[in-house]
Automatic annotation (TrEMBL):
Annotated protein name in UniProt: ABC transporter permease
GO function terms (MF aspect): dipeptide transmembrane transporter activity
Pfam families given in the database record: BPD_transp_1, BPD_transp_1_N
SUPFAM superfamilies from the UniProt entry: MetI-like (SSF161098)
Length: 313
């Protein structure tokens, strides 16, 4: 197990190298002259040259990439062009709202999607199976911003049960923290939970048709034990896979959801940085989110070995 873990972690190193190269190239792949765009139409040549020097655009690309990568390894993501703050500090201030939102969304999605999928697979073509179809269709069909506005209008504006915007740190109390995150987390969970439910149902149906399941039924094993002890464990690999892949969906949807509910997280920071062409912030955010996604996939791969030890070989 330890050797497999080390090998899997080592394979993530070249992946992050490619990600770093792509992130660094964002500055050069942008249409037009970045220095001219940042300086504005009324800027003098001297001002444009000063911005170009501050961005390092007057140096050889490979030299600048090597220096930038060395600073990244040391934890230095540069300085914001507009605010003058270190990018690492700006991202650190936004981590708690975003990761709190993503964590709660994952808990809700898995907590609802897996039981719904198991219940639907236990009795195909029943009312539970049809209800799951309606739920997943609704989840797939509603864009995040429409679902967010609808939930905010119903539970915040009409019923006044929950706040419509903002974020309360966990240090101010779990109740307030949870109260502010319920609506945006449910918004994110609609699509993610629908995907998990559909994959769980399909994977469970495949396992329930195996010979050893029929043998267990013939021996009189309780249906609940068959579902959760025999079938669910063997059907868990595709479910774990889709949970890991769905993190990318959550990250993308979080950008929209944070703007809908005015949550001061990474999503709003990314939108502001793109609107202002703040390249160091854009590069830092993309690199950080990419690293998080790579680590999630490594964790998913390692979890396979707990479910099926044959995978490590």
């Amino acid at each position: 197990m330890l050797a497999y873990t080390v090998r899997r972690l080592l394979t993530a190193v070249p992946v992050m190298g490619v990600v770093a190269l792509v992130v660094f190239s964002l500055l050069y792949l942008t249409p037009g002259d970045p220095a001219q765009v940042l300086a504005g139409d009324t800027a003098t040549p001297e001002q444009i040259a000063k911005i170009r020097t501050s961005l390092g655009l007057d140096e050889e690309a490979h030299l600048r990439f090597a220096r930038w990568l060395w600073h990244v390894v040391q934890g230095d993501l540069g300085v914001s062009i507009f605010s003058g703050e270190p990018v690492t500090h700006m991202i650190g201030q936004r981590l708690q709202p975003t990761f709190s939102l993503l964590l709660l969304a994952v808990v809700i999605s898995v907590g609802l999607g897996v039981p719904f999928g198991v219940a639907a697979a236990a009795r195909p073509d029943s009312w539970r199976d049809r209800a799951l179809t309606v739920f997943t269709t609704l989840g797939f069909s509603l864009p995040a911003f429409i679902a967010g506005y609808a939930l905010a209008f119903l539970f915040a504006t009409t019923l006044k049960w929950l706040p419509v915007q903002g974020f309360t740190p966990l240090s101010d109390g779990p109740a307030l923290w949870l109260r502010n995150l319920i609506l945006p987390a449910v918004t994110l969970s609609l699509v993610y939970g629908a995907i998990i439910a559909r994959v769980t149902r399909a994977s469970m149906l495949d396992v329930l048709s195996e010979d050893y399941i029929r043998t267990a039924r013939a021996k009189g094993v309780a249906p609940r034990i068959i579902l959760f002890r025999h079938a669910l464990k063997n059907a868990a690999v595709p479910v774990i896979t889709i949970i890991g892949i769905g993190v990318a969906t959550l990250i993308g949807s979080a950008v929209i959801t944070e703007n809908v509910f005015a949550i001061p997280g990474i999503g709003r920071l990314t939108v502001d940085a793109i609107l202002h062409r703040d390249y160091p912030v854009i590069q830092g955010v993309v690199l950080m989110l990419s690293a998080a996604y790579v680590l999630v996939n490594v964790a998913v791969d390692l979890s396979y070995t707990l479910l099926d030890p044959r995978i490590r070989y």
